[in-house]
Task: structure prediction
Amino acid sequence: MPLEQKNGANSTEHQQKNNFLHSLFELIKEPMFILLLTATSVYFVTADYNNGIFMLLAIILVVSISLYQESKSRNAIEALSKLTQPKSKVIRNGIVVEIPSEEIVLGDLIQTEEGTFVPADGIIIQSNDFSVNESILTGESLSVSKNEQSENKQVYQGTIVASGLAICQVTAIGSQNTIRKNWKKSRQHRRRKNAITNSN
Result:
């Protein structure tokens, strides 16, 4: 099976259809949401309508906030897709070739150079005066110098090469890249936090 079919394309595009329903379905699977819904049902079954209505309003508030933040996350993912140039340089059969960035696969050797976006997560295997701006990931505006001997020789999709050149072996593409995973974890954390806050 081709690597692109097995691991997906190197694209951060998300499914456009039924985003609202998908987000709602993901939300109602959260344990805290199920707990709130169960508590609300108990209040109504026991004729404690005041608390039942209060809990129902709390659930509506949680859902509204979560869906709003989900929308912001989707917008952030769309912004990430703009941080990848249409084409990237890869080394195949010992030759540097330019291919559409979405065709990059795991194990590819990518060549990143000053002024370009890193097209996929990877490990530096060779470099020359290489530094990268990782502010999108860390919030730190200063560029970070890295090479194949660095303790952290990882590069991340969407970061900007500030200087030099590096050849990196691709370790993650598309939805599996570090920034996308961090956003997903942050989204899940916000959902749980909202549910806990509004249940008190």
